[in-house]
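The records we work with from here on pair a chain with its fold. These numbers are not coordinates but entries in a learned vocabulary of local backbone shapes. To see the layout at work, look at the sequence and tokens printed below.

. . .
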Amino acid sequence: MREQGGRRLNVSGVLRHLGVSRSGYNTWKNRIPSNREQRKNKIKDKICDIYDESHQNYGAPKIAKKLKEEGETISKKAVGNYMREMG
């Protein structure tokens, strides 16, 4: 990690500044993703694939329809939120 001025930051200093313990940071870093997070990532990958296949023309409603055709249970609003998160 580097600060804007080129100074090197150490993890201990950043953790102290944020008020986070080293053990808490390590626990967070090594945490296994939950089932919900794994599903979300899988759906985001599918959204990217569908979006790219449509030459970046499809919006949330059409992508949601395609996902439902593939057997996923998801709403247009959720697809829109995921797309917004991905930029």
Remarks:
- DSSP finds five helices and no strands in the chain.
- Helices lie at 11-18, 22-29, 35-53, 60-69, 76-86.
